[in-house]
Amino acid sequence: DAQLGRRLMHVAATVVEPRGKGPRRQARTKGGRSRNVSLGDAACEAIREHLGWQRAFLPDEAAADRERAICCGPSGELLRPSAVSKGFRALRDELKLPAGTSFHTLRHTHATMLIVGGADMRTVQERLGHANVSTTLSLYAHVVEGRDRAAADAFEAVSARIEKGA
Questions:
Q1: For residues 6-24, average pLDDT
Q2: Do residues 26 and 14 make contact, with C-beta atoms less than 8 angstroms apart?
């Protein structure tokens, strides 16, 4: 749910698609815990623009129901996860991205960009909703360039302070 006044995304549910049934909102996340993920100004503006576009074609009652949901079908219905994946594959192919790129790849890209940008692993863990930071570390520690050099520099700096009696 987009909460743009608070500049955040509240992640408290997931859309599931039971076999042979339509999509439904499941009132818990995969990890079973809700979380708030802060959004930047550019992301909030892009979401506001999208919601305005979406509101233009939704029936009035659906628009009220879907005000905080970012994406829905033309009648306000939840999007099938399989349809989102299919649509992403078409976009991927149009953009000539590698064949293995999936909608879930965007999650990995987000995490990698956070880490490369200097975010700490605990923050990345919380944004992704991992139960343990060890999960985040096992998936993303390799993207932190210069970890060994930074460790050597830190050790040297502490050693120098100890030698000086500081």
A1: 89
A2: yes
